[in-house]
Design brief:
The protein is mainly alpha-helical. The chain has ten helices and no strands. It has one domain.
């Protein structure tokens, strides 16, 4: 892929990546707020303003490097990122065990909802090959499906501090849960090693993405 192609891809993916990350985090905060924890609201994080959620590494540097991978490493890599986690005080939830699960699932569920909306847009687009606007909308919708499916599946992996890890911790007995929580600080490293050294994530994301593309025709 040439420089121009990479630039075009960066421009097409930047918006969907940022939207997917921000909505994912805000969903955690809103569900926590609904179940009794106003921590995110108190800290000004229940906003769709990207500036409130941007993490320099996870929101800018990491996805930027992955988008530029064809130029830097001569290889296409999965594009994903993360924002500053919305603060949740699980002790303030009315039903901590149940509500922790619902708060954790809110992020991936929101990403799947965004993928479904993008699939709906795809299904409504006219099949006109030489029309610029439908072609651009189609490209953005495709990118939105890909990014949101990857983010949802990535976060659903049962490794703390990912959302799937939070769900697993809430379901396990206390002693086992505490042992699993020791992975909290190195969980992202484990997942990154899986992504770059195996095709596990690709195998999981592929069928999910294909499902939403079928919805979009």
């Amino acid at each position: 892929m040439g420089v121009f192609g990479v630039i075009v891809e960066v421009l097409l993916l930047a918006g969907p990546v940022l939207a997917a990350i921000v909505f994912h985090e805000v969903a955690h905060g809103w569900v926590a707020y609904a179940f009794g924890d106003p921590t995110a609201a108190e800290r000004g994080r229940l906003t769709l303003n990207p500036l409130a959620h941007i993490d320099p590494i996870g929101t800018v540097i990491l996805p930027g490097l992955l988008l530029l991978a064809p130029l830097l490493f001569h290889e296409r890599l999965p594009v994903f990122g993360y924002a500053r986690p919305v603060p949740v005080d699980f002790g303030r939830l009315r039903h901590p065990k149940r509500d922790t699960i619902l708060v954790a699932l809110a992020g991936p569920a929101t990403n799947f909802a965004m993928a479904a909306m993008a699939a709906f847009v795809l299904a409504q687009l006219p099949h006109v090959e030489d029309a610029l606007l439908p072609a651009l909308v189609r490209l953005v919708a495709v990118a939105t499906i890909q990014v949101n499916c990857l983010l949802a599946v990535f976060n659903a992996m049962p490794i703390p501090p990912l959302d799937g890890g939070r769900v697993l911790v809430a379901l396990l007995p206390v002693k086992t849960a505490r042992a699993l929580m020791t992975l909290d600080r190195v969980g992202y490293i484990i997942v990154l090693l899986l992504i770059f050294n195996t095709n596990v994530v690709a195998r999981l994301v592929g069928p999910v993405t294909a499902f939403f593309f079928r919805l979009g025709g």
